User: Fold this.
Amino acid sequence: MPYIRTTTNRPVAKSTADKITAACGQAITLLRGKTEEWLMVEVTGDKNLYFKGTDEPCAIAEVQILGKANPSELENLTDAMTQILSSALDVPSDRIYVRYEEVAYWGWNGANF
Assistant:
């Protein structure tokens, strides 16, 4: 039940969003027990997003997962997400945040996991 929301101030063509989505599907497997089968991805571009006081290219990936993750797995996912966004969006790696939220309850198909 992972969900990755990517927001950037760069324009994002559908082909770029598709590339990010596919790469996220591979990257999410860095977290034990997480697969692309349950992954939902949102990619939003052209936002009024500022970092370090400027609107130079920047991005944030917000990763929500059901349960807890191992810190070293999160470190690996941060590296992967940074590479994905830097490459796909042409954003310098030092202008990318990756934020994590571990969720205790997650609903799907009328019930909770």
Notes: Helices lie at 14-27, 71-89. The chain has two helices and six strands. The CA atoms of residues 18 and 43 lie 9 Å apart.
